Amino acid sequence: MRLFSRKQDIFLYNTKSREKELFKPLGKRVKMYSCGPTVYNYAHLGNLRSYVFADTLKRTLLYGGYKVDHVINITDVGHLVSDGDTGEDKVEREARQKKKSAKEITDFYTKAFFLDLEKLNIKTDDVTFPRATEYIKEQINLIRKLEEKGYTYKTSDGIYFDTSKFPKYGVLGGSTGESRIEENTEKKNPEDFALWKFSKENRLQEWDSPWGIGFPGWHIECSAMSMSLLGESIDIHTGGVDHITVHHNNETAQSECSTGKPFVNIWMHNEFLNTEGGKMAKSKENFLRLSYISPPLAFRYFLLQAHYRSQLDFSESVIEASETALSRLRNIISEYKDNGKVNKGYKGEFTKAISDDLNTPKALSLIWDLIKDETVEDEDKKATILDFDKVLGLRLDKVEKVEVPEEVLKLVKEREKAREESNWQEADRIRDEVAKVKFKIKDTDDGSVIEKL
Ligand code: AMP
Ligand code: ZN
Prior knowledge:
With about 450 residues, the protein is α/β, with parallel strands linked by helices. The protein has three domains: about 10-285, HUPs (Rossmann fold, 3-Layer(aba) Sandwich), CATH 3.40.50; about 295-400, Up-down Bundle (Four Helix Bundle (Hemerythrin (Met), subunit A)), CATH 1.20.120.640; about 405-450. It has 13 helices and 16 strands. The protein has helices spanning about 45-65, 90-100, 100-120, 135-150, 220-230, 245-260, 295-305, 315-335, 345-355, 360-370, 380-390, 405-420, 425-435; strands at about 10-15, 20, 30-35, 65-70, 125-130, 150-155, 160, 195-200, 215, 235-240, 265-270, 275, 280, 310-315, 440-445, 445-450. A five-stranded parallel β-sheet has the order 5-4-3-10-11, with helices on both faces. Strands 6-7-8-9 form a four-stranded antiparallel β-sheet. The protein is globular and about 75 Å long. It binds adenosine monophosphate (AMP) and zinc ion. Zinc ion (ZN) binds near residues 35, 222 and 247. Adenosine monophosphate binds next to helix 1 and strand 10.
C-alpha cells in the first residue's frame, strides 16, 4: 500500500494569468527560481524585500508539505546600466571606478549579500546560488540553439533575439517596445534584445564564442541557469515588479523558443519598497542598507505587515514601530513556558491566511489575537506561535528570558515619573544611564519596554 502525504491547497497570484490560482506542482518537488542580485553594490532594503518575499513563499510551501528546490542566481556579468542593451556593464563600471578586478568586486558584494540573508533569517540551506560567469558555456549553447532555430540575427554590436518570431512576446504584460527609448537603430523591433554582446573596448570579463569575443546578455543568464539547474519547465519564478516588462518577458521568449515548452508555470512579483524619493534604487540617493535597522529582523517584521503585492513606504517612524512590536512579541514569548500543544483552531486560521496568496498581515495579526486570548494556555500559545514562525521566520525560537536587574527596573520607574512630569532632560539622562549597563528603554503606548543591548 502506498501512502500519500496530504498537501495543503495553496492559492498564488500568477502575473501571467492575472489571477489567483490553485497551485499544482509539475512534479514531486517544487522547482523555484528567484532573480538574484547584481553584485556591483550592496543590496538595498528594496532588493531585500524580494528575497524576504521569495523566502516566505518557500516557507509557505514547505509548511504545506511540499519539497522545494530553490535557485537564486548571482548576476556578476552582463547587467547593463540601461534595460535597452546599452550603456556600461554595472560590474565593469564599478571595478574600474574602484580600481579593482571584476572578481574582487563581485566576491565582496556576494559575501555582503549572504550576510544580509543570514541576518534576515532567509533559509539558504536548500538554495543553490549559481554565478552567471560560471554558466557561460550553457548560455552559449542556449544562444546556439536559438540561432539554429532561426530566432537570432547579428548587428554590429552583438547577436539579438528577434521578438517578432515569437507571437506570444510580452505575455506577462507591462508596456513593451513602444515606450522603450530607441538607442540601437540596428534592431529590427524595439523589443528585440541582446543575447551576446561583442567586446568593443578592453573588457575585464569577456569570453570566446562562436560569434567572437564578448559577453552574454543579462536575460540569457537566468534562462540558462534556470534550465540547467531546475529543468526546462519550472513551477515558480519570482522577482520584483520592475522585472516584468523587459527581463521576464525576454526570459520567457528565449526559453520557450529554445525548448518549445512552457518555461514557467506561475510568475510571482513583489511590489516596490518606496522611500521619500520614490522607488528605492541603487542609482538613487534614497538607498538604505540593512545595517540601518537594528535588529535586522524588525525589517522582516515590517515587510510581513504588508501584502507582498502592495507598495510599501519606508520611513524611520514605521520601522521604529516594527522594532517595538517585535521586541514586545519577544518579551511576551520569553515569559511563556515550554512543552505546550499547537492550538488547532489558530493553526487552521493561520494556514488559511498564508495559503491565500501569502496573506502575511492577517497571519501576523493572528499572533496578537492569540496572545490576548484568555481561553488558551500560555504554553500552548508559545507552541502555536513557534509553529507559525516556521513561515514567518522571525527567529522567535531563539528568544531568551531577559533578567532585568533591580537597579535597571528602579531607573525605568524613575524615568517614567520624569516623563509624566515632562522632565525630558531627566528622562534622557536616565536612558543614557541605563544604556551604560547595556539595556535599552523603548517607549510604547503600553509603557516602557526594556531590551538587552
Ligand atoms: P538587482 O540587484 O537590481 O538585479 O535587483 C534584485 C531584485 O530586487 C530584483 O528582483 C528587483 O526586481 C528587486 N527590486 C529592485 N528595487 C526594488 C524596490 N525598490 N522594491 C522592491 N524590490 C526591488
Ligand atoms: Zn533574472
